[in-house]
Amino acid sequence: MAAFETHYTLPLPKFDEPVRLLVVVAPYYKDIADNLIAGARAVAEEAGAEVDIVEVPGALEIPTAITLAQGMADYHGFVALGCVIRGETTHYDTVCNDSSRGLTLMGLQGVCIGNGILTVENREQAVVRADPAGQNKGGGAAAAALHLVALSRKWGRVEKGIGFRVPASGKDRT
User: Fold this and answer.
1) d(Cα 39, Cα 20) in Å, to the nearest integer?
2) What per-residue string of b and e applies to 86-122 under the rule 16 or more CB within 10 Å gives b?
3) Nearest to 99, CA basis, from 56, 69, 151, 130
4) Which residues pair with 22 in a beta bridge?
5) Distance between CA 111 and CA 118 in Å, rounded?
6) 7, 76, 91, 147: which one is catalytic?
7) 91: annotated active-site residue
8) pTM for the complete prediction?
9) pLDDT tier at 173 (50, 70, 90 boundaries)?
């Protein structure tokens, strides 16, 4: 069972300049969402990042909210949090696949996103994964976003809304 596996976790990156993260959460299962937020906030604060939080109605709205914020606000990275528990219909598959696809497409365009949307079979699985003292998937999503912010700063910056790399020095690197 995966819960008993030992995993390597990268140390959190260090930053010379401030980092602003936006946590976008779908609080459909409020207790689970609150635990995901607590984990994300603790990891972000440990790395010295500032955190803002916004709520959206459901997991399908998370990619849209991040797209809006990426184009209209001043954030370096984003953390997507929520929980989708399998039900009796295929709606679960649509929500899981489409929210993940939206986040992945933004990531491929250079947006620094940590995906902490839980996709589980039952509430018990969600509770274990969301627990900041347990699997801490909210904290893991914040750490992922922070690592991507660090990489984007290492390799240059992405001009907001353009999606291509501009070298930090302003000169082309060859």
Assistant:
1) 16
2) eeeeeebeebbeebbebbeebbeebbbbbbbbbbbee
3) 56
4) 52, 78
5) 20
6) 91
7) yes
8) 0.88
9) very low
Compute the distance between CA of residue 82 and CA of residue 59 in angstroms, rounded to an integer.
6
pLDDT digits (tens, 9 = 90+) for 120-138: 999 999 999 999 999 999 9
Binding residues: 28, 59-61, 83-85, 88-89, 115, 129
Please say whether the beta carbons of 14 and 111 come within 8 A. Answer: no
Sequence-ordered alpha helix ranges (H) in 47-174: 62-72, 91-108, 123-130, 137-155
Beta strand spans in 3-127 (E): 20-25, 50-55, 77-85, 113-120
Q: Is the CB of residue 58 less than 8 Å from the CB of residue 28?
A: yes
SS3 content of the chain, % helix, strand, coil (to 5): 45, 20, 35
Binding residues for (2S)-2-hydroxy-3-oxobutyl phosphate: 88-89, 129
